Amino acid sequence: VKIVTQTSVLQKTLRSLRRKGRTIGFVPTMGCLHEGHLSLVRRARRENDIVVVSIFVNPLQFGPREDLKTYPRQLPKDIRLLRGSCDIVFAPSRTSFYPEDFSTFVEVRGLSDRLCGHSRPGHFRGVATVVAKLFCAASPDRAYFGQKDAQQVAVIQKMCRDLGFPLDLKVCPIVREKDGLAMSSRNLYLTPSERRDAVVLFQALKSGQHLAAQGQRDAARIVRTLEDFIRRTRTAKIDYIAIVDPLSFEPVKTIARQALLLLAVFIGKTRLIDNAVLKVT
Ligand code: AMP
């Protein structure tokens, strides 16, 4: 694996590979890699000649009272994990990526203000800005994102459409632990007993899917049932439960055929998100 820390070096390296006709697959991450990230990297490996993974804890997407300082960082281990499946790791320093006079931001209006954007003001502006800047640095043919962060995918898709980034966005399925908990770097924050409680998110999604499969079309009723269910776990505090249209992310009242069930729940101090498709048959 080649480690690159300067944007200009990345651009120069990739330019010469592109000239030789190589296709480039790009996986943006904040590091502390787990199987969820690695599933994206492996897919990029299958579909491209060159695989670039960025590892950068993006300060712009953290709120002032969030976990920027404590977010887990393990660059040497991440690089070991990427051996064999990735050609270039792009790991810029904060100051080289965002010089002191940095003042340009990308805002995807509307979509960014709801759900996670409502709980985390400025979060999606930070995400869209870093991803746009990373796309300019890597100019990939394909970029890989996880369905785990469903709203993030929707924001990036919209940004790519609006600004005309010439690349294919690939969305990869959620990778879970054995008990169903969606893999996340933030799972490391959980104490052993919180870790056991955290499975409540997955169980709630399953029970939402079950209700829809049995014919329940009333979104509010499903949400209420899941609220009651999650509240039975003492360490759990609901941030939001929402049922939305999978494309527009607008809330739905009645589930027509398909909808997306989204959860954000604190387990102790750790905010976890997860989602699943609801199908009414
Ligand atoms: P992060 O490092 O948390 O910013 O995540 C980097 C990418 O990995 C994002 O596109 C995430 O959606 C994706 N990702 C994180 N966790 C998972 C997971 N459990 N399954 C699939 N993709 C994931």
Describe what you observe in this structure.
By secondary structure, this protein is α/β, with parallel strands linked by helices. 37% of the residues lie in helices and 20% in strands. It has ten helices and nine strands. A six-stranded parallel sheet has the order 1-4-3-2-5-6, sandwiched between helices. A three-stranded antiparallel sheet has the order 7-8-9. Strand 8 and strand 9 form a beta hairpin. Helix 6 crosses helix 7 and helix 9 packs antiparallel against helix 10. It is globular. Residues 29-30, 36-37, 39-40, 145-146, 148-149, 172, 174-175, 182-185 line the site of adenosine monophosphate (AMP). Adenosine monophosphate is lined by residues 29-30, 36-37, 39-40, 145-146, 148-149, 172, 174-175, 182-185.
Give the helix/strand layout.
Blueprint: E1 2-4, H1 7-19, E2 24-29, H2 35-47, E3 50-55, H3 75-82, E4 88-90, H4 94-97, H5 116-119, H6 123-138, E5 142-146, H7 150-163, E6 168-172, H8 192-197, H9 200-213, H10 219-231, E7 236-244, E8 258-267, E9 270-279
Parallel strand pairs: 1-4, 2-3, 2-5, 3-4, 5-6
Antiparallel strand pairs: 7-8, 8-9
Helix pairs in contact: 6-7, 9-10
Bound molecules: adenosine monophosphate.
